[in-house]
Amino acid sequence: MPRIPRPRLAPAVAVGVAIALVALWLAETLPVEAGLVGWDEACFYKAAQDLYMSLAGGDVVGFLRDIRSQSFYPPGHALVSAAWFSIAGPSLWSFSLLTVLVFAAVVGLSWSVGRRLGAEWAGLAVALLVAGSPLVQVLAARPLLEVRGLALTLAFV
User: Fold this and answer.
1) Long-range contacts of 56-59 (CB under 8 A, 24+ apart)
2) What three-state secondary structure class fits 138?
3) Alpha-carbon Rg for the chain in angstroms
4) CA 121 to chain CA centroid, nearest Å
5) Can you tell me the distance from the alpha carbon of 153 to that of 147, in angstroms, rounded to the nearest whole number?
């Protein structure tokens, strides 16, 4: 008796719905709206804003100075944020929104990694665990480094 192929669309739709729901929830509960921005978020935002202003103004010397002044933070974080600012504007809200979008990519990447390491259901399980993790959700609701680092890690697995 021939095997009937199972549709692969159902897990992808489930992951997409989970990503959309959690990203929507995070966007609604961003701490920026209530003015709850901590020291780290403010420092990351300031570094990205400095780079954006130097790039937007064509100040190459200022750009190099701003890159050099980030000796204790990864410069890639501020560079990605500065590039994002050229698309969405240099606001604290858009800075936080970038982390929510990266979180959605993390859920999708975790599904891909789980699927490659196990089966279709394993990818779905991993994606739902990541999307539902309170720790990952808290980190995704704040514009910190951890979610972007997790996205890079999963991209290279």
Assistant:
1) 56/86
2) helix
3) 18
4) 24
5) 10
pLDDT band at 11 (very low <50, low <70, confident <90, very high): low
Percent of the residues in the chain that have a pLDDT greater than 90, as a whole number: 5
Output the CA–CA distances (angstroms, integers) from residue 105 to 37, 56, 71, 87, 148, in the order listed.
23, 27, 28, 18, 9
What residue has token string 């994002």? 84
Residues in contact with 87: Cβ distance below 8 Å, sequence separation at least 6, in sequence order: none
Half-sphere CA count of 48, side-chain side, radius 13 A: 30
Q: How many CB atoms are closer than 10 A to CB 129?
A: 13
94, 28 Cβ separation under 8 angstroms: no
pLDDT at 3 over 90: no
Whether the predicted pLDDT of 84 surpasses 90: yes
Q: Is 90:52 a contact under the CB 8 Å cutoff?
A: yes
- Name the residue among 106, 59, 56 with its Cα closest to residue 84: 56
Tell whether pTM > 0.85.
no
Contact assessment for residue 133 and residue 63, using Cβ atoms and an 8 Å cutoff: no
